[in-house]
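Case study.
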Amino acid sequence: MATQRVLPQSKETLLQNYNKRLKDDIKSIMDNFTEIVKTAKIEDETQVSRPTQAEQDHYEMHVRAANIVRAGESLMKLVSDLKQFLILNDFPSVNDAISQQNQQLRALQDECDKKLTSLRDEIAVDLYELEEEYYSSRYK
Amino acid sequence: MVVGVLKAAVFFVVLSSGSLSAFLTRMANERLRVLEEVEKDIAVVLQCAGNIVLELSKDKHNASHLDRQLVQFQTSISRVENELGAQIRYLTQVATGQPHEGSTYSTRKDCQMSLNRAEYAKVKLGELGRTCEAMLEQQQQQI
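After joint prediction, the assembly is written out as follows.
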């Protein structure tokens, strides 16, 4: 049975895509915000009547505000994607984390084995005395 | 002898009470923390934009409040752009596209076996302690 295989996007293309998303979203926020502030200016002479112009400006501001929010959410998604990419592909920090955990685990293992060995030695001394007592008694 | 055995049993109770996972503390990754800060900055950008538009909608604007919000808006958005750009540049340098094949499984297994040895010794010492106490009680009853 033929299995469908999805080829992964190359690293460079993915990071270029991240860059493009970042620039587009920042540009969208800046442009839309600038246009909102420009639209807030009240002009004396308008091509259409004041109520119509007010209605148009109101609708335009709504759309631009929605664009700013959409760009903000897109940036949050980008940050989430970057976090995921960082966790999976930041080899230096992954190597550091692995070596630190290995170090801690080996230290714990060494401490445990050292204490077990010292306990064994103490019990061996006591056992020697007990054996002497037992084999020289009438219960052997 | 009995006191020494009981002391050893207490030692193993203390040693094995700290589980393996307690020693595997999560390492705070500085880069992930920076990305958390960037998320907060994005929220600040949107909040400042909203505050500025709200202030402009009033009949009398508070100029100093507008200036403060505008400066914060510009600072936050430039910080977002710079930090995310820096993270992407760093990932361009270090990412290989291959999966990481490192593992802590072997040391974790060795440590688990060491703790199992300690647990087994604790169990055996406990049995020995109970046997000694039973013998002592028996002798006291005979007396």
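Observations recorded in class. Confidence is low (pLDDT under 50) at residues 1-7 of chain A. Chain A touches chain B through 58 residues (CB under 8 Å). We will return to this complex in the next lecture.
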